[in-house]
């Protein structure tokens, strides 16, 4: 067995890693929730190696990246760009969301569209994981696995995970 460095899992779950956002879940081409909001909570765990100095990497860096990502979504209504049920249209300085026979207007300052099929905790977790993975501050880290969780309320989480494929 080659001399492999020990792996360690570092978990970050801080109260301030959250974002308050509005959304509505789309259940079909004709059924959706009313617009409402959650205080979404975020947590993450990374699996990495530990150096000869007993340090994996300064996890403050991970907390900073997670906070930056949360802040980007905070205090906005989140809309999916890739839903099969929702069409987004720019008209008269507004963003119109077309759903079934409804036209839902939003001011640009209040809304953020995301490359998602639906604004669900599972889709939000997957997108946050992708953005964490591609963040330049983490690119040089020897990350072997990442798990990212998003919660829409106490006791309900979705976790998206990535693991380095061994050759
Ligand atoms: N698979 C998913 N299903 C649902 C999601 C989701 O993200 N993924 N989201 C919702 C809604 O956002 C809904 O607002 C959540 O409803 P609810 O469970 O009632 O939320 P509460 O925090 O109020 O939970 P309580 O059990 O009522 O305390 C629905 N489905």
* CATH class label: Alpha Beta
> Number of folding domains?
1
Level-2 CATH architecture: 2-Layer Sandwich
How much helicity do the residues have? 10-25%
CATH superfamily: 6-pyruvoyl tetrahydropterin synthase/QueD
Topology, number of strands: 10
Based on the model shown, name its key terms.
167 residues; alpha+beta; Tetrahydropterin Synthase, Chain A; seven-stranded mixed beta sheet; three-stranded antiparallel beta sheet; 10 strands; 20% helix; 43% strand; elongated; binds the ligand Nc1nc2c(c(=O)[nH]1)N=C([C@H](O)[C@H](O)COP(=O)(O)OP(=O)(O)OP(=O)(O)O)CN2; zinc; lyase; EC 4.1.2.50; metal ion binding
Question: How would you summarize the topology of this molecule?
Answer:
Elements: E1 7-12, E2 18-23, E3 36-49, H1 59-73, E4 76-80, E5 86-91, E6 94-99, E7 102-107, E8 111-114, H2 121-134, H3 136-139, E9 143-153, E10 156-163
Parallel strand pairs: 2-4, 4-8
Antiparallel strand pairs: 1-3, 2-3, 3-9, 5-6, 6-7, 9-10
Residues 25, 33, 36, 120-122, 152-153, 156 line the site of ligand LPXRUNBV.
Keywords: Lyase, Metal-binding, Zinc
InterPro entries: 6-PTP_synth/QueD, 6-PTP_synth/QueD_sf
Family: Belongs to the PTPS family. QueD subfamily.
Could you describe the 3D structure shown?
Pathway: Purine metabolism; 7-cyano-7-deazaguanine biosynthesis. InterPro entries: 6-PTP_synth/QueD (IPR007115), 6-PTP_synth/QueD_sf (IPR038418). Its cofactor is Zn(2+). This is 6-carboxy-5,6,7,8-tetrahydropterin synthase. This protein is of the alpha+beta class and 167 residues long. The chain has one domain: 6-pyruvoyl tetrahydropterin synthase/QueD (Tetrahydropterin Synthase, Chain A, 2-Layer Sandwich). It has three helices and ten strands. Strands 1, 2, 3, 4, 8, 9 and 10 form a seven-stranded mixed β-sheet that branches. A hairpin with a 2-residue loop joins β5 and β6. The structure holds the ligand Nc1nc2c(c(=O)[nH]1)N=C([C@H](O)[C@H](O)COP(=O)(O)OP(=O)(O)OP(=O)(O)O)CN2. The site of the ligand Nc1nc2c(c(=O)[nH]1)N=C([C@H](O)[C@H](O)COP(=O)(O)OP(=O)(O)OP(=O)(O)O)CN2 has 9 residues, from α2 and β9.
